[in-house]
Every structure is written in C-alpha cells, then in structure tokens.
Design goal:
Two copies of one chain form a homodimer.
Chain A lengths: L2 H8 L10 E9 L9 H15 L7 E8 L2 E9 L8
Antiparallel strand pairs in A: 1-3, 2-3
C-alpha cells in the first residue's frame, strides 16, 4: 500500500474538520541498538522548516513518538490555518 | 491503522537489505487549490536537518512526490550507513 492511500484513508476520522492538515512522519528502522536516538531531537528543527513556508500556531501541532521493536516513528500533525482565497 | 504498522508491513519488500533505513513523509491535505506548492521546496531543507544527525551519502536518498485529488505526499527514503558497533 502506498502512503498516499494510508493518508487518505486515515482522514476519515477527521472528516468533520474542514481545515487543511499537514503530517510529517519520520520513521527509522534500526538493525542494531547502537547509535544515538536523534528522532526526538529533530522535531523542533522540522517545525522550523515548516514555519518557513506556513504559519503554524502553537496549539496547532500534536507530536507523537512511537517505538516498537526495531522501529521508531516520530509523527507531527499540524492543523493549518485557512488558506486565503485568491483575489 | 497506525503508521508504525504501515511502516513495518512495508519493509517486507526490502527485507533482503540489512541496512538501516530512515523514511520521511510530508503529507498535505488541501481544502482549496489556493496557496503555494511548498512541498517540493522542503525536500532539501529536510535533508539538511537529517544530515545534522547522520551521515547521508548522495546516492542513498530516493525522493518521490505523489499527488492525488486534494492530497499531496512528499516521501524521502534514506538508506543509512551501517552503524558502528559499540566498543
């Protein structure tokens, strides 16, 4: 399954909300337990990149970090402000 | 379905490759056609963030941009160099 399908299917749960949304996912598969755990450190920097392009209000971001076995997933969900209509 | 399951299921196709991998996905759902198309612009900056933490070789990155209806997905797949074993 492509991620696009996954993303489209997942929006059913937020179908009542008409706002735009942006989702950033960083997933890491580790073959060893070695190496630094940098995913948590990345989240502020990823938000800085996003903020260069769009206005993100403080309460508009939810962050989740999941670990299971050798996989680790950082998920940022951002609700975007309504886009201005073209003049 | 949680993304973690999606990510784990998807690795079956690359099971023969023992290297670590990192996947970054930026997905945007637009309620209108307005606003700039910033996803393609973000990819270099996202790679800069990743490169602060890990060494990424030039050929180790594949980038894909998918669009379907009101959804747009930027996907970066990075094969990581082998982690050094703990001494």
């Amino acid at each position: 399954m492509r991620f696009l399908e996954f993303f489209r299917n997942n929006r059913k749960t937020t179908a009542t909300v008409a706002k735009e949304r942006l989702q950033i996912i960083v997933a890491r598969e580790r073959t060893t337990r070695n190496g630094p755990d940098y995913l948590p450190l990345m989240k502020e920097e990823l938000l800085l990149v996003v903020r260069k392009y769009i206005q993100v209000e403080e309460g508009a971001v939810t962050i989740q970090l999941d670990k299971e076995g050798d996989c680790e997933v950082l998920e940022l969900n951002i609700t975007l402000p309504d886009a201005p209509t073209a003049s």
